[in-house]
Design a protein that fits this description.
The two termini are 28 Å apart. Helix content is 79%, strand content 0%. The protein has 305 residues and is an all-alpha fold. It is built from eleven helices and no strands.
Length: 305
């Protein structure tokens, strides 16, 4: 390998990385700049009235900017305030402390993952039943679609009260709400995926006297994988929303929803935004995990050459 070729290869790699990072960095810089300007605009009335002594207080625009970016209870916290609160919430408290954002994140993640697993299993079972029983499709599919027209904010308290009366508390009721939002995209995608094999492929298995279970395992399920994983990415993001919403009407002591509710009670907007940022990070992490699983699964099903 010649030095000239090595230099050219590294230049190409740096060029590719630069072109990948530049658009994201540009958009992020614009958003952060707009955020800081928005913090000044929204926090200025309160800063002038409560901190700077009113319009006649003899302050400059530099004083106004510094004050709006350092208020304890701002209307819109500045990005650095959220970053500082995240740092303290993640590192200054033990992981099992109610003040630790890690504990709340782990609680919500547990409910989300359980609901995701339950919703995926329910969606798979419904899809398999619909594909193999056309009558079931006519009887069940309209109700599946109708179930998603009910707002989760309306159905969550009902489900939690019913399950609570049966003695089911803790993670499971929240997981049921998460499952409610997870199963629909899985069901719809898997119905399409299980019907994806062509007639000639099904007839080939028929000539080998394959039964329905063998056809499902060897043909339909592998063919449905490209349809399943995009639905799983949607499902786990929706499941996270369901888990957070389920924590709101119960007065839960832990979870990102409980953190949002407690912070709103005390008017701590910085903690509200910290919880929102952590929810977004958790959603990205869960979606990335599903994407990684997709790469592994689809790589395994590629034919050997």
């Amino acid at each position: 390998m010649s030095p000239a070729w090595t230099t050219t290869a590294w230049e190409r790699r740096l060029h590719a990385v630069w072109h990948a990072v530049l658009p994201v960095g540009t958009v992020l810089s614009v958003l952060i700049g707009a955020w800081y300007l928005g913090a000044v605009a929204l926090n200025a009335p309160g800063a002038i009235e409560r901190v700077l002594g009113g319009p006649e207080g003899g302050w400059s625009w530099q004083d106004l900017v510094r004050t709006t970016w350092a208020m304890q209870r701002p209307v819109l916290p500045a990005p650095h305030q959220i970053a500082v609160d995240l740092w303290h919430s993640l590192l200054d408290w033990p992981a099992d402390s109610p003040r630790s954002l890690l504990m709340h994140t782990a609680t919500t993640a547990e409910a989300t993952l359980l609901g995701f697993v339950l919703g995926t299993l329910l969606g798979l079972l419904l899809a398999i039943g619909i594909v193999h029983a056309p009558t079931l499709e006519k009887a069940v599919m309209p109700w599946i679609v109708a179930s998603q027209t009910v707002p989760v904010l309306a159905i969550a308290p009902i489900v939690l009260v019913v399950l609570g009366s049966l003695g089911l508390t803790g993670t499971l009721p929240k997981a049921v709400i998460s499952m409610y939002l997870c199963f629909f995209p899985v069901t719809v995608a898997m119905v399409q995926g299980l019907r994806a094999p062509q007639t000639i492929e099904k007839e080939l298995l028929y000539t080998y006297a394959a039964n329905r279970m063998q056809t499902l395992w060897m043909l339909r399920l592998p063919s449905a994988l490209p349809y399943l994983f995009p639905a799983l990415r949607v499902a786990i993001a929706a499941g996270l929303v369901g888990a957070i919403v389920a924590e709101l009407p119960t007065g839960a002591q832990a979870g990102l929803g409980a953190r949002l509710l407690t912070s709103s009670y005390y008017g701590n907007t910085v903690q509200i935004w910290s919880a929102l940022v952590m929810s977004a990070v958790l959603g990205v992490a869960l979606t990335a995990a599903v994407s990684l699983l997709e790469r592994v699964a689809l790589r395994q099903r590629q034919p050997v050459r």
